Amino acid sequence: MGRTEDSWGLAPGEALTPELTVMRRLGGGSSYEAWLAFDELTFAPVVVKVLRPSKVGDERAHAALEREAVALAAVNHPVVVRGLRHTSTGPRPHLVLEQADGPRLSTLVRRHGPLQEQQYLPLALDVASVLHYLRHVGYVHLDIKPSNIIMGAPARVIDLSVARPVTEAAALRTPIGTDAYMAPEQCDPGRLGGPTPASDVWGLGRRSSRRSAARSRSARGRGSLSSLVARLRWDGACPTRYAASSPQPSTRTLGCVPLLRRSRTRCSPCWGASRRRG
């Protein structure tokens, strides 16, 4: 396989590094590619996020890789995919992650429609346990969505590439996340204040409706974020602020989901195009 576009163009069996042998390409984002590889150090399959060729000399891309590695080191929860190691030097700066077996939630919904209640409730509890833990260690994920959830027993939450410590998240003044799953304060942090741990509950609440699950197949391409924010008129108490006022973390994580369901119609402009930001 030759290099095409902004890709390393590696074929199965090629060496990504001396310890990592490519099995297949999984996908990627604007700054990185994700590969399934066999790791000679752990002697097991792993996922490797590698900066794209054009990003190897990009300081911002390096900083994002380092930030994700720091977040993974701080988050140690059985439902969050673990980071194993990373390097910012050499020809291919990369992050090595454990492999989580199973399809993404977004893939299941696209192929088979909304989950049944007996499937969704355990999943919601798994993800809610992550949100509770993230608040405990002082982090905000900022991108809770179906494509960042691997279905399994337990489910696994992936992709901490835009995660921030609570203080840094609160100071954000530009949108970060995926539009269709962003809380109002993520859409317009300058006016509504920066995201908090409760903002992640919005992403979970977005998934709590089976009707929303069905719509996830078409939640893309519905306009720019600027047009969404222009249409957002938040004239009442933000449900994520309501969640943040709850005295018990478990109440914050679980108790506000029904409120988020009821509030969907007021903030539906925030659920437009599902493009990733950050």
User: Strand order within the widest sheet?
Assistant: 1-2-3-4-6-5
Main beta sheet strand tally, sense and closure: 6 strands, antiparallel
Order of helices and strands: EEEEHEEHHEEEEHEHHHHHHHHE
Task: Estimate what percentage of residues fall within beta strands.
Answer: 15-25%
**What name is given to the CATH topology of the largest domain?**
Transferase(Phosphotransferase), domain 1
CA-based gyration radius? 19 Å
Spans of at least 5 consecutive residues whose pLDDT stays below 50 are 210-275
Global structural class: alpha+beta
How many E-type strands?
12
What is the fold's blueprint, element by element?
Elements: E1 15-17, E2 20-28, E3 32-39, E4 44-51, H1 59-74, E5 83-87, E6 94-98, H2 105-112, H3 117-137, E7 139-140, E8 149-150, E9 156-157, E10 164-165, H4 166-170, E11 177-178, H5 184-187, H6 189-192, H7 197-207, H8 210-215, H9 225-231, H10 239-244, H11 249-255, H12 257-263, E12 276-277
Antiparallel strand pairs: 1-2, 2-3, 3-4, 4-6, 5-6, 7-10, 8-9, 11-12
Helix pairs in contact: 3-7, 3-11, 7-12
